[in-house]
Write a structure and sequence with these properties.
Length: 193
């Protein structure tokens, strides 16, 4: 029922700004129905009306990259267009990193993740993303080195201990991995309190 009401509102709305909001909400309703193509169409139309709208762009990129048949070429185009408007947007750089991972291009994924961290060096999500990308790229030594630096800066980064433990495990340092997993649990307990 939400899709029908939002579709009727979209078709009757003369105000372009309200139309963008309606299209966004309609895209979410379509996603709830697993209509990924319909959601993408609504987001594309909304983004065409407001190309600087970061929320629309990031949502559209997520829609393109999700699902059983990701539209990675469309995701890349949308990221490239967004980077032309905001070259160092950390969220776009993170999305670019994820897109390159899906395309199995580890060097480009790592480069984009590093650029995202450089654009927002205090953002823990981006730092955690970098560690995950390094692990996916099988650069275990690089992940351990980066995690060492992150942990040195803040001993409460449980996620850095965890990522370092995974890297050590794949680097065949079982004892070091166990120690880091235990440190991750301790740091998480401290952060929770």
């Amino acid at each position: 029922e939400a899709v029908q009401r939002l579709t009727a509102a979209r078709d009757a709305q003369p105000d372009p700004n309200l139309l963008v909001d309606i299209r966004f909400n309609l895209s979410q309703a379509l996603l709830a129905r697993n209509d990924v193509d319909g959601a993408a169409r609504e987001l594309e139309a909304a983004l065409a009306a407001q190309p600087n709208n970061r929320r629309l762009r990031l949502t559209l990129i997520d829609v393109y990259m999700g699902g059983a048949n990701p539209r990675l070429i469309d995701a890349e185009r949308t990221i490239r267009e967004g980077r032309a408007l905001a070259a160092n947007d950390p969220a776009l750089l993170r999305a670019e990193s994820m897109m390159w991972l899906k395309r199995k291009d580890a060097p480009k994924a790592v480069a984009a993740a590093r650029a995202a961290v450089a654009a927002a060096p205090k953002d823990d999500l981006l730092q955690n993303t970098l560690l995950g990308v390094l692990l996916d790229a099988r650069d275990y030594a690089g992940a351990i080195k980066e995690a060492d630096q992150m942990i040195a800066a803040d001993k409460n980064r449980w996620w850095a201990f965890m990522q370092r433990a995974v890297a050590k495990r794949y680097a065949n340092d079982k004892d070091g991995a166990i120690q880091d997993f235990e440190a991750a649990l301790a740091a998480a307990a401290t952060a929770r309190n």
